[in-house]
Amino acid sequence: MLRALALVAVSSLLAACGSDQPATTDKPVSGDATAAPRVAVIPKGTTHVFWQAVAAGAKDAGARTGLNVVWKGPLQENDRAQQIQLVQQFVSEGVAGIALAPLDHAALAPVVRSAKNSGIPVVIFDSDLDGTPGVDFASFVATDNRAGGELAGQRLAELVGGKGKVVLLRYQVGSASTEAREAGFLAAAKAAGLEVLVDNRYAGATIGEAKNTALNLADHLQQAHGVFCSNESATAGMLQALDQLGLRGKVRFVGFDSSPPLVDGLRDGGIDALVVQDPRKMGELSVQALADLIAKKPVAPKVDTGAVLATKANMDEPAVKRLLQ
Amino acid sequence: MSGGGGRRSAWRSGGPLLGLGATWLLFAASAGAPFLTWANHELMLLQTAVVGVAAVGATWIIVAGGIDLAVGSTIAVAGMVGALALRSGLSWPAAAAATTLAGSLVGFVIGALVTGALLRVLLAGGAALVAGWLAQTMGALSAGEAGAGGDLVRWVAVAAGVAAALVAWLASARLRWSLPLSPFIVTLGLWGALRGLAKGLGGNQPVYFPRNDDLAALMLPRTALLPIGVWVMIAVAAVAAFVLRRTVFGRHVQAFGQNREAARLSGIEVVGIERRVYAIGGLCAGVAGVLQLSYLSMGDPTTAQGYELKAIAAAVIGGASLAGGTGSILGTLLGALVMTVVDNGCTKLEFDNWVQDVATGAIIVGAVALDRLRQQRAAAR
Fold it and tell me: Do B19 and B346 contact (CB within 8 A), yes or no?
């Protein structure tokens, strides 16, 4: 009785908060989930389009493999402490498996160790974690980010004709995936003979912060021939800043990841190329790996989910279009 | 607890206890067994420790009629100092001491700025920079040929800076010029400035140090024994509550928070009181920084964002009045627990993050509204 009352109270509170649209991303797979093993999939954040694509892939794979996928990210995109809390909580609950995109390669390592010690298989996706895949955690499912960054650097060098000044807007301190892209970009840009004007600015977690950082770089951007940003929010913030500075389309611009404004930018020439990952595949393969682990099947320690260069010319080809959505 | 004894204090924390009970019951009933395990409760206590310790300091400041919006940034700065200490090879207790000291120093500076000692702070800061720079340059010159000792030089420079600041501070003690600033403004400024300092300390990078299991053990579950961090929180709270309630100093702080003019006229040395209160707040933030450092096993310059608001919310749910003069340490811990229970329960119920944000906000306002309603009724009787 009390339980029912409380449920009613909680759900009416929530209904009052906004009943216009049931959120599609954060709910567990419904149906006869009671019997299915629960696995937790923990992204770095929940608001970016990228993570929503991971969620969609994870849920597809969950439905296919008969797992009950719980999707839960930290409230703040960059809150390492809260991500640790989430992992701890799922470990203490005794879920059947955890897939985690660690916000920090060191901070999340101890809690992943403790999950392993409790006998819970952990798949790391998107960003690397200290330790050896296959030993400290079961598998690492991710884009080869360094190769993606190199791809971006080579394309930007082609776009500016092999010489000129470029600006790199980094994403955030301590994020292994974007740091690998940035390193790959710098290596390729320098190998191609480009001069790097700025390589020490960090965009921060949100589009707003990225835009502000980019606007503060206005004088450098005006001198630059090319720009590279290493994730979705940094690319989106930079695009807005270039717009505001009257540089949209004048500076060659290569971004990373995709979202509707970035696709529009690609179409109207504001962005010359986007390196796109396959987040959906990342979610699918992560949950597939968990399913295999739960079924005691062997899993490869490293799984590459691939990166593709999307341009105005190829953006409507089905294979690329899918990754831009 | 306006200068009163334990009975009034216990009465004041009755409201927060009710709030915590109601929140707990709500989630216990709706989330069921996974919420109710001992492991989960241990986890909730553990996850309250950092905010709880910081909130104890915030309660002191709020009781004294002030506010500290820089708590989260202070935790980050203190944690970065500790991480740098560990990276340069110091033992973890030494690093923990450095972390606590860094927090206390920040609190001391806030107190000095609030009580009008802007010029003395600038003098001390200037002296620190000059001395630190000199030591660094000389150290680099002498160590340059050996090509080693970079970390040692840095620590010598820091020590020289701190010593110079102390000398300048003491030497300028007779400076009469005073420009009191509102704590809201001072800590709003430091909220950003300290965050920047935290990033600068690590050269815009997180600071990683060799794995340290002893430090990490502070914030690891120990089943029946409770994590050490939880005991730290309880100890800090017990001392803070005792001093606030049972000592002359504590009574003076309350009197000052209720009516600073009356406190001054009755011969209380108000400047010293206010400075000490902010130093205590900083000390608590420093201890919270140690726990956060242990929890993250790295120095994260972006950590503890928004903890200042969590600390203030915990104090207010716990019965503190932002007008000053009123507040209970026990109530604050209960308030901090309310927020952890909401976080934990929402995850157990698999709520969307946006729902959790809304629910947390609603529960904070609801808990305080209920408490005020209860007080109104009690006062009318």
Answer: no
**pLDDT less than 70: residues of chain B:** 1-13, 143-150, 381
Strands (E), chain B: none
Q: Answer whether A200 sits within 8 Å of B204, measured CB to CB.
A: yes
Same domain, A105 and A119: yes
Sequence-distant (6+) residues with CB within 8 A of A98 are A39, A40, A41, A42, A87, A90, A91, A115, A120, A121, A122, A123, A290
pLDDT (tens digit per residue) in B190-215: 999 999 999 999 887 789 999 898 99
State the best of A88, A120, A130, A198 to mutate against chain B, taking most chain B CBs within 10 Å.
Answer: A88
Strands of the sheet with A38-42, listed across from one edge: A68-71, A38-42, A97-100, A122-125, A139-142, A302-304
What CATH number corresponds to the domain at position A71? 3.40.50.2300
Clarify whether residues A139 and A282 are in a common domain: yes
Give the list of residues 6+ apart from residue A68 with CB closer than 8 angstroms, or none.
A28, A29, A33, A36, A37, A38, A39, A62
Residue A186 included in any domain: yes
Give chain B's length: 381
Is A85 part of a structural domain of the chain?
Answer: yes
Neighbours of B246 (CB within 10 A): 12
Enclosing domain of residue A187? 145-277
Sheet bearing A307-311, strands edge to edge: A195-202, A165-170, A226-229, A252-256, A273-277, A307-311
Interface contact A107-B47, CB threshold 8 A? no
pLDDT reported for residue A324: 86
**Tally of helices (H runs) and strands (E runs) in chain A:** 12, 12
**Residue tagged 């999950």 (tokens):** A115
Q: Are residues A286 and A268 in the same domain?
A: no
Q: Give the closest of B26, B353, B356 to A9, CB-based.
A: B26
Are residues A173 and B34, on separate chains, in Cβ contact within 8 Å? no
Dihedral (CA of B29, B32, B36, B40) sign:
negative
Per-residue pLDDT of chain A (325 residues; tens, 9 = 90+): 445 444 445 444 444 443 334 344 444 444 444 578 999 999 998 888 789 889 999 999 999 999 999 999 998 878 999 999 999 999 999 999 999 999 999 999 999 999 999 999 999 999 889 999 999 999 999 999 999 999 999 999 999 998 899 999 999 887 888 999 999 999 999 999 999 999 989 998 888 889 989 998 988 999 999 999 999 999 999 999 999 899 999 999 999 998 888 999 999 999 999 999 999 999 999 999 999 999 999 999 999 998 999 999 999 998 899 888 7
Domain architecture of chain B: domains with CATH: 6-117+178-380 (1.10.3470)
Is residue A11 assigned to a domain? no
Q: Tokens at residue B156, please?
A: 């010598």
Partner-chain contact A3 B30, CB within 8 Å = yes
Number of folded domains in chain A? 2
DSSP label of A35: T
Report d(CA B4, CA B263) in Å as an integer: 16
Quote the CA–CA distance of B27 and B35 in Å, as a whole number: 7
Minimal Cα–Cα distance from A80 to chain B, Å?
7
Tell me the pLDDT tens digit for each residue of B107-120: 999 999 999 999 99
Query: CA of B363 to nearest chain A CA: how many angstroms apart?
Result: 10
Q: What is the pLDDT of residue B142?
A: 73
The per-residue pLDDT for B54 is: 98
DSSP 8-state class, residue B277: H
**Residue A242, H or E segment:** helix A232-244
